[in-house]
């Protein structure tokens, strides 16, 4: 920071991402100019990343309560009740900007950060998911980014020993300059042993433990709140470096410390490190906090107070211990070989006071930092609606067989085996379904019980781009549908809202409308939001990413013997299509991949129908009537049938109905639908009729081809080659 | 019947091994921290679990092989106590000199997690007798350094002495002669990259791993 004194503080504030108005506000709140340390503290606490200043107003629309919600948004992660005194703790978070600049470390530390959010609440992480969006495969950077991100996710999660069980990967030129890496972690805890961050009282010791503090990641939160330009790669030094071995030790030590009864409050040091953790703990508890920075374990010599407060070195925790329990801490930290120190105390002052070399280097009231962060009601314009496409507006393929091969080998549709084979999906020995096994959600057992958690991550960015409101609804509905399709009762979601620059009214319009749609779907499906993360400013040179509000859903399976997959279809079974098909081809995968068009309105989601059809399917699974179910999404009926056939190793023969054009029936992406394979198709039709659910038999399983009568027949072998071949081929293997 | 699972810093299959042994054999399983110097008295089976001991930062298993508990593991192995190293545990046994060879970086240069079919190359060992002549069993692998390597003379000796216990049907990592698991000359120390501790119940895709633990303890 040697160059700083040459500039005015106001100029420095601008470099730190604070607007002139925000700087003036700081001066007013302090009644004086801040010093550099104080300015750094304000700038990170008031960054978009930490303060949600542009999105907070909109996030208030989400339903966040429900019978099963123990803790909604506002803590490190959401907590839901899964019965028997057990709780599930989960959250999704982005590490987009760092992953673009340094893909391995950016992705690795994203995984590390989200795990810390979960075990900080007292939960043992039991499952990881990730939602990845890369640029056009033809873009020169894409292959290197895929390779680095996947290696980083695997390198971290595999080492810590938490299975990566599900995820999604898209490619689109809209992400050429800003990839998205959203990681989700799901943990298990006893419902009466959840830990929170609010400091309960003044006069308690503040303990730092974990890795030492270095100069890495300084101002990472600020970087995450800015757009990219050509110079962004120069920001590489702001990307943190992960140490999964340290994280593993940190998990064990943290859970052991919690079990010892010594912890009064605890917070991980994530974005904005020591600053945000100390401010959050004291601010939420309504107390003051005083830190002696000389006591902070340091990796490098001569670190300034500014550097220590802004460092985003990984694998660090801050705990407030109960009186006189320091010895418990020392014993546990020594066992696990972690650095630790009492670095301060909570106080009655209501101020954050920092000392360094015996001098007070910062003294600011916590209230403005913690809850007076600016709140913006940013102007927005409604997205321009796109026209609905009727089947007649969309041409049928000249050759259906070729079209199906093209669809199933498209980057978004092709098998992601190359990716998930690099992830340990089996550690902890409770994985029942994962990316490899052919089910609509990852499923892990609740250790030692008959219960299981179903987890999924969903959003269809091309729908959100076409219509943020319908796309937002669809993201929530698809997560709910995927959980339903395995027989789980959907309980709650976490969300990761990835958008461009909210200061642009058209981007703010995407945010507002996507949240409107998501909130409506959450309400209608009784699927509340319990945690989340917002990632804005995903733009390069003024071009924003497609709006991508990723939804991470969690559901409960009461007895894992009663569930469904789509990999056990047998010859002779009927294929029953549940739900109504009108042939919605706007913004469809067929339109984009086969016809090269990205126009039209996306399919609309009728939430009442979604719920009715889903409840019907879940009841059929739980009653044992069906056990082979696949939700319909990208690519429609034919893609679902192809995936079922490939996963089961059994072909399928379909009949296209005569009441609509075949391409609309096969490729349409109408919502609220499922494809079921059952030996008792007629009984299922009868049950569906009783519930008012549209259902019809559209074909039969068997043989070694996927065929539609009179249109095409493809050997499973050829289909598999197309489906499995694209990604390894792209990666040069 | 008593079993002990050694816990190194960075082990992450320690609980899996405990649960797998308990559920498949009913044995009492002690977790032994690597800084201990003695195994529990009368232990019939010692397991070195998978994971990333010391983060795999020097060379997989190199630092764990020098842990205080390893002296007693070596002594127990010398007395003929059944000793199994799985994945990182196999790497530790090689680094400790209890088994020959080394595990190199996978041929693909990538971590690989997938189900594998294994040939039971030697069904006469105390770990495989329970397979009762079955030629093929199913487990999963999950490793970045599972590529077994030894010089030709050692490989010939392993083959000649019946020390190759498991072979991959499809080699996932480039292992010499498709070797997935080997025993020492006295047949009481087994190292293998596939995970019997992730294959002990049909719900997990295979219960073939349970038979391995049952065999190991039945012969104790």
Oligomeric status: heterodimer
End-to-end C-alpha gap of chain A: 46 Å
Number of strand elements of chain A: 28
The interface involving the most residues is between: A-B, 32 and 32 residues
Would you tell me the structural class of the helices and strands of chain B? alpha/beta
Largest sheet of chain B: 9 strands, mixed
The helix count of chain A comes to: 25
Query: In what range is the share of β-strand residues of chain A?
Result: 15-25%
Number of DSSP helical runs of chain B: 5
Strand order of the largest sheet of chain B: 2-1-3-4-11-10-9-6-7
**Overall morphology of chain B:** globular
Query: Can you give the mean pLDDT of chain A?
Result: 94
What gap, in angstroms, lies between the N and C termini of chain B? 8 Å
Strand order of the largest sheet of chain A: 8-10-7-11-9-12-13
Average pLDDT metric of chain B: 97
Report the strand count of chain B.
Answer: 11
Q: How would you describe the shape of chain A? A: globular
Range of strand content of chain B: 25-35%
Write down the Rg of chain A. 26 Å
Poorly predicted runs of 5 or more residues of chain A: 1-5
Can you give keywords for this protein?
heterodimer, A: 733 residues, alpha+beta, seven-stranded mixed β-sheet, globular, disordered N terminus, B: 220 residues, alpha/beta, nine-stranded mixed β-sheet, two-stranded antiparallel ribbon
